[in-house]
Amino acid sequence: MHKKLRVAAYAVCVRDGQLLLARSPAPDGTPEWVLPGGGMEHGEDPLDTVVRELDEETGYRVEVTGLLGLDSSHHVFPREGLHGPVDHHGLRIVYEGRVVGGELRNEVNGSTDLAAWHDLDAVPDLVRVRLVDIALKLWRERPVDGRVFVSEKA
Questions:
Q1: Is residue 151 part of a domain?
Q2: How far is CA 20 from the centre of its chain?
Q3: Which value, to the nearest 10 degrees, does the dihedral of the CA atoms of residues 130, 23, 64, 49 take?
Q4: Does 96 fall in a domain?
Q5: CB within 10 Å: which end of the chain, N or C, has fewer?
Q6: Rounded distance, CA 22 to CA 53, Å?
């Protein structure tokens, strides 16, 4: 079985009671809201990753104002690519960020197609990935160990 480790960095940016999110197609093509951020490049510092990804996906320059925590996910996918089953481990680093420049725009030819601010109260009604709930819980609770539990059906 092929083993794959993916390390990624994301940012929770809240301004005036709104959360910055990006929209990305799910594996079945359905659009879903995601936290802006993404995978680290080899040799890249995670803080540089989140700053780069936010710029790419939203058009904003951000300042990282804190480390909120980590999320680790482990799944075995029956078929991915030519190698058969994949044992996938994702490590997501979640920062808090503040917009310091740039202008909101949509990513072109990337993994997302739309960036938008959403009222915090409206987030539970959005079609979203689980990491959005995890990141918001980290932002609200600020646990000492940087970890929270969010059920699969949050």
A1: no
A2: 11
A3: 90
A4: yes
A5: N
A6: 11
Count how many residues are written for the chain.
154
Tokens describing residue 32: 């879903």
**Joined tokens for residue 39:** 């995978």
pLDDT at residue 154, rounded to an integer? 47
Could you tell me the residue range of the domain that residue 133 belongs to? 2-102+111-141
What is the block-wise mean pLDDT of the chain (154 residues), using blocks of 10 residues? 92 98 89 96 97 97 98 84 81 98 93 96 96 97 92 61
Q: What single-letter amino acid sits at 43?
A: G
What's the number of domains the chain is made of?
Answer: 1
**Domain annotation covers residue 84:** yes
Q: For residue 78, give the nearest of 70, 68, 69, 88 by alpha carbon.
A: 88
